[in-house]
Amino acid sequence: MVARAFTLLELMISMAVLLMIVFFVGQLMSSATTTIVNSGKLLDSDNQARLIFSQMANDFAKMYNRTDVNYYFHSTGTNSQQGENDEFYFYSEAPGYIASQDLSGTTEATINSASLIGYRVSDTISSGTRAELERLGRGLHWMDSAAQTGAGHATSVLCLPYLIKDNFSSAITDLYNNSSNPNPVPTTTLAPEWDVIGELVFRMEFCFLLKSGSFNNIPVSPVGSKDNLGASVPPGSGDGLTSGYSVGSRWYDTTAQLGYCCTSPTPGQAVWSPLGLQDVKAVVVTIATMDLKGRATTTAAAINSAIAPLTNFIGNDPSNPGPVPVPVADAWIKKSENVADFLSATNGLSKLAASSIRVYQRFFYLN
Prior knowledge:
The chain is of the alpha+beta class. The chain has helices at residues 8-61, 164-167, 169-172, 292-296, 300-305, 329-337, 339-344, 351-355; strands at 72-74, 87-92, 115-121, 133-139, 194-198, 201-210, 215-216, 228-231, 250-253, 258-264, 271-274, 280-290, 357-365. The model has no long low-confidence stretch (mean pLDDT 81). It is elongated and about 120 Å long. It has eight helices and 13 strands. The chain folds into two domains: 59-210 and 279-365, no CATH class; 220-274, no CATH class.
């Protein structure tokens, strides 16, 4: 009997084939791991965006949509990310919370069903703070106690001509919140009322879909033969027919951020009524998220530098007509998907953080 065995060449070929199989399996596992990790990141962002928009939808659904109620859609200010539309405040029957230190009391008899609701992103508000989406839910009383009125410390339901930006300025300009950035030295007798509801969100912008079908950054749609959408003061009795205004003409006071509708243009006796959000069909909110692993690879300052490349919504400017305004979501997606270009526009942002950015948008239709 002749003994037979593998030749050296056969062994070498077998080893090569085995190594190739191991290599391809390794590549397959690596690809699958990357896909799973990326899917996990996307799932985290999707889930958070869904929860945020669900909360906003509930707040908007219960909003007081009346002409005699003040709304404050913030376009400039202390906490404004870009100096444009990225904060908003309104009255709603959505849940709000009464602080235990509230001097007006916390008993059922002192509390009504109205709340002051607000949303903002807490960028650059204190050293080391991460950009996160915050919600203000202040439960309101029917009446203020004397110790809390004035200086922006109001705690009651306040409609026009009282302005949210003035009567609740303490809460609006408070740079601290209840969760990731508590105030070490409380500046008021009330506990901080802001809560982080989106730790992945680092940018937010809103605009209005008007009933005319156009988008704008103010809640007023020009409809009259003459409108004034860039005034710095409210209209007066002299702003009537002799000035070219007619019934239905619109006026927007950019200082108080209030819209008006002309109901009687009688010369010298013109009447302008508060417009509220009557010209608005929907509020369009766009947010950008960055997952926690991406955030962990960069600094708070670098994350804040990623705000600027995601440009503001630009509304209609009657004095400088241009392209038809549209919500910013598409522009943000195109910008963030070009990672190299996006990184060049930031300061110290990591590639991992830039590649983890996701953009979401939702229309909240008003009743």
